[in-house]
């Protein structure tokens, strides 16, 4: 009797395995998780692409994704969105905190409400989580690009394109954002290897491409011998490239861009932008969801997951293996 029962159960599970490979594990366990993703802002191609990766992962594990964010990259606007998301008690929260310090207490509220927190793209505190140090190590994992390395890559490329000498500056968002702070840090560290390069004061644009374009022109007016600029995120780079074009200096003032919206293709091809460092936001979204799912199904999760870059230039941008990393927003 017992043996027959065992045989029939085995038969049933074999049949399930054979016919329902698409049945997701969470559903198979009778539970479909609701995972929230709060981006830095909703209208940025970077986060829209991240959402696609997160959605693909949710589909794979039978979870539901809730995507909710603010219209601007701004801590004051992000906090009420977070409060609303936390009040709805998702099974897990993936969030790109818009400030290293200002988002610590708002995110602690999630943990207090029993919602596990994972940060994607940006971090809070030092970004070292689950190490028992500091007041911001409570997120379970940080899933992101290596932003210091990204800054170094930009510095190497810009140094090469300006022939190792001349004046450059960093067009950046605002201090306090982990990603863009680290890109600037990596850039400045790496540029030290080039004694002929002078780094001018950083220009902060508040994630406003128009402001970044005007700043480019103002820096150029003060420094007609400006050789290059590093745009440390999508809007900084877009603004720097537009500023260079508006000043009639396309190709003369070199631009190294972080991020890869569709518009970067033309700027690479026409020589306005020399190099674009594409992050892999879909990969960040995917691994964010998978990490949350792992935790929710009682697996252990690494405290940090590093995702990749694809460095784009005029010579490789038509290669589908490269172009697939253009953002899809
Ligand atoms: O560069 C990305 C992101 O990594 C950064 O944290 C904020 O800016 C972007 O979203 C691009 O606009």
Structure commentary:
The chain has 329 residues and is of the alpha/beta class. It has two domains: 3-139 and 280-307, Response regulator (Rossmann fold, 3-Layer(aba) Sandwich), CATH 3.40.50; 147-279, Response regulator (Rossmann fold, 3-Layer(aba) Sandwich), CATH 3.40.50.2300. Helices cover 43% and strands 18% of the residues. The chain is built from twelve helices and 13 strands. It has helices at 2-19, 25-28, 45-61, 75-87, 104-112, 147-161, 178-191, 209-222, 234-246, 264-269, 281-296, 320-323, and strands spanning 34-38, 64-67, 92-95, 117-120, 141-145, 166-172, 197-199, 203-204, 226-231, 254-258, 275-279, 304-307, 309-312. The strands form two sheets. Strands 6, 7, 8, 9, 10, 11 and 13 form a seven-stranded mixed beta sheet that branches. Strands 2-1-3-4-5-12 form a six-stranded parallel beta sheet, with helices on both faces. Strand 10, helix 10 (264-269) and strand 11 (275-279) form a beta-alpha-beta unit. Helix 4 (75-87) runs parallel beside helix 5 (104-112) and helix 6 (147-161) packs across helix 7 (178-191). Alpha-D-tagatopyranose binds next to helix 3 and helix 9.
What is the second-level CATH architecture of the largest domain?
3-Layer(aba) Sandwich
Bound molecules: alpha-D-tagatopyranose
Put simply, the count of helices is 12
CATH homologous superfamily grouping of the largest domain? Response regulator
Number of strands: 13
Range of helix content: 40-55%
Task: Characterize the biggest β-sheet.
Answer: 7 strands, mixed
Distance between the termini: 59 Å
Structural class: alpha/beta
Could you say what the CATH topology of the largest domain is called? Rossmann fold
């Amino acid at each position: 009797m017992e043996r027959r029962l065992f045989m029939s159960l085995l038969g049933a599970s074999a049949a399930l395995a054979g016919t329902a490979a698409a049945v997701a594990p969470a559903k198979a366990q009778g539970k479909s998780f609701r995972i929230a993703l709060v981006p830095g802002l909703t209208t940025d191609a970077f986060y829209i692409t991240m959402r696609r990766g997160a959605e693909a992962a949710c589909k794979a594990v039978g979870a539901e994704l809730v995507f909710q964010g603010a219209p601007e990259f701004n801590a004051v606007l992000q906090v009420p969105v977070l409060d609303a998301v936390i009040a709805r008690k998702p099974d897990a929260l993936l969030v790109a905190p818009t400030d290293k310090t200002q988002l610590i207490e708002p995110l602690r509220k999630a943990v207090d409400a029993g919602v596990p927190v994972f940060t994607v793209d940006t971090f809070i505190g030092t970004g070292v989580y689950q190490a028992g140090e500091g007041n911001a190590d409570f997120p379970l994992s940080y899933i992101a690009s290596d932003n210091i390395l990204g800054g170094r890559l930009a510095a190497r490329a810009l140094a090469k394109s300006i022939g190792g000498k001349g004046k450059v500056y960093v067009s950046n968002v605002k201090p306090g954002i982990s990603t863009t702070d680290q890109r600037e840090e990596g850039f400045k560290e790496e540029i030290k290897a080039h004694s002929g390069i002078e780094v001018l004061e950083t220009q902060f644009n508040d994630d406003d491409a128009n402001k970044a374009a005007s700043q480019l022109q103002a820096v150029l007016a003060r420094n007609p011998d400006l050789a290059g600029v590093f745009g440390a995120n999508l809007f900084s780079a877009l603004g720097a490239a537009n500023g260079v074009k508006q000043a009639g200096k396309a190709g003369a003032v070199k631009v190294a861009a972080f991020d890869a919206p569709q518009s970067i293709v033309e700027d690479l091809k026409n020589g306005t932008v020399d190099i674009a460092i594409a992050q892999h936001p879909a990969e960040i979204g995917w691994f964010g969801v998978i990490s949350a799912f792992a935790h929710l199904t009682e697996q252990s999760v690494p405290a940090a997951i590093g995702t990749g870059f694809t460095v784009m230039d005029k010579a490789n941008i038509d290669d589908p293996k490269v172009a697939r990393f253009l953002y899809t927003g």
